[in-house]
Write a structure and sequence with these properties.
Helices cover about 65% and strands about 10% of the residues. It is mostly helical. It starts with a helix and ends in a 5-residue tail after the last strand.
């Protein structure tokens, strides 16, 4: 009996081991990179081809730079994405990662040389565009490229991993390469730097350059790590000490690039939290029956310096004790080392409001005077037009027979969008009782055009009197 129980336990263990083994085997198969894996020679040939910047690649880069600059200038995300899709910037960067991974120093030199060409051409092109562009204000899409953070590091790194994975497949997926180009956004920082150079904004230049360096370094780092992971054969054999030294240089350079972005990220997170705390503080504390909060400004200062919150109030002025109480509550909302500035509509500001009202009254008076002058001018013009119409009607009676009554008016013609397109003088002639409908239309129209010195004359002949 005991032997049967022991045998049953062993059988169950074998079943469990089999199920667990199948599960992990299935997971391993799912994540296996061996299927559809291109050979090292195929990968190198593909990346070698993308490294070169001459002819078509160079002209495509110039066009992509112009398109990205236009997108940043008009704040169009779609245009910027289009520029990133066609820009050939990934080639030299992935070439740098591959060359370091396989110790191919010829490829490294070629990649760095073409990377420098790419950088210089893009900067010159974008600078020229922004120098000649009549629209020189910084849009939100452009400003977004001036404050890189650790999130940009992560985007560049995982974008580089995805790009290198796509390069190592026999069937290279175009959507992956395109997606990496969009996600890592190599082109917009270069164009933003061009804008900074053209406008003399050194902080834009520094921020954009730093973002571009982040993208470049961490795409290359991801490519290098993928080459190590895939165990590609080395082109040049290095001794153990040289290999360790190279790895240290790669790690050290990556950390140097990473640290400033981490500091910027921490500062941005602190500022975001500070602004959220201010919003809660102002919403909860400044609730009064006879005093209303109009607006507030936040002045956040980094590195432990005193920040400030300025609130603007209207209505019954708050007493000094109430303001002191509001200031004392700031620590409860996480606003330590923050100054509270209260702007109230006191007596002096009421005088300012009256001055503003007086200014508006002066503007209205000036408009009324302008209207009066125009009305006087219109009144002086109308009699003259009436006299001219009277003269023309008398003269017309001698030019054509059977003219009974004449009316004249100026007409404005509009298109279907309501835009004025032309003006014309419309003359309506009513024959007299003896005409029997026979009025010399051509003679009247020709005489009017000669008499009035214009071709914009339209003549209508009414039906004769019964």
């Amino acid at each position: 009996m005991e032997a049967m129980k022991e045998e049953d336990k062993k059988r169950k263990k074998r079943v469990y081991k089999t199920l667990i083994g199948r599960f992990f085997g299935n997971v391993r198969d799912r994540f296996d990179l061996g299927e559809d894996n291109a050979t090292q020679a195929e990968v190198e040939a593909s990346i070698y081809k993308g490294v070169e910047f001459r002819g078509t690649n160079l002209w495509v880069l110039i066009c992509a730079t112009f398109i990205a600059s236009l997108g940043l200038n008009v704040n169009s995300t779609a245009v910027i994405i289009g520029a990133m899709l066609i820009s050939p910037l990934m080639g030299p960067i992935m070439g740098i990662g591959l060359s370091i991974g396989i110790n191919d120093f010829q490829l490294l030199k070629k990649s760095l040389r073409n990377f420098l060409w790419m950088f210089v051409v893009s900067i010159i092109t974008s600078t020229v565009y922004f120098l000649i562009s009549p629209y020189s204000s910084a849009q939100s899409e452009l400003l977004a490229r001036t404050s890189p953070t650790t999130y940009d590091v992560l985007i560049a790194f995982f974008g580089g991993v995805a790009g290198m994975l796509a390069q190592t497949r026999r069937d290279r997926t175009g959507t992956v390469i395109s997606g990496v180009a969009i996600a890592t956004a190599l082109m917009p920082p270069l164009c933003t730097a061009g804008f900074g150079i053209a406008s003399g904004e050194i902080m834009y230049v520094l921020g954009a350059f730093y973002l571009f360096i982040i993208n470049t370094v961490f795409i290359a780092l991801a490519s290098y790590l993928m080459v190590i992971f895939l165990k590609y054969e080395k082109k040049t054999a290095l001794d153990q000490a040289a290999s360790k030294r190279m790895r240290r240089y790669v790690i050290l350079f990556s950390v140097i690039i990473l640290v400033p972005s981490m500091i910027l990220t921490v500062n941005i997170l602190r500022k975001t939290q500070f602004e959220a705390n201010v919003d809660r503080y102002v919403t909860n504390v400044f609730q009064f029956n006879k005093t209303m909060l109009v607006d507030y400004d936040v002045r956040y200062r980094y590195e432990g310096r005193q920040s400030a919150v300025e609130v603007r109030l209207v209505g019954e002025p708050l007493s000094h004790n109430v303001i002191e109480n509001a200031s004392a509550q700031m620590a409860y909302y996480g606003l330590e080392n923050t100054e509270l500035i209260v702007r109230q509509a006191d007596e002096n500001e009421r005088i300012d409001f009256s001055k503003i009202q007086h200014s508006y009254a002066e503007i209205i008076d000036e408009k009324n005077r302008t209207i009066a002058r125009l009305e006087e001018r219109l009144a002086s013009v109308q009699p003259a037009d009436t006299v001219a119409a009277g003269d023309i009607s008398r003269e017309m009676a001698h030019v054509a027979d059977h003219v009974g009554r004449v009316s004249m008016s100026k007409h404005i013609f509009y298109d279907v969008q309501g835009v004025p397109t032309d003006t014309a003088l419309v003359v309506t002639v009513r024959p007299d009782s003896l005409s029997q409908g026979a009025v010399e239309y051509d003679r009247i129209e020709g005489w009017l055009r000669t008499r009035l010195k214009t071709d914009n004359v339209i003549v209508y002949i009414e039906e004769g009197e019964e």
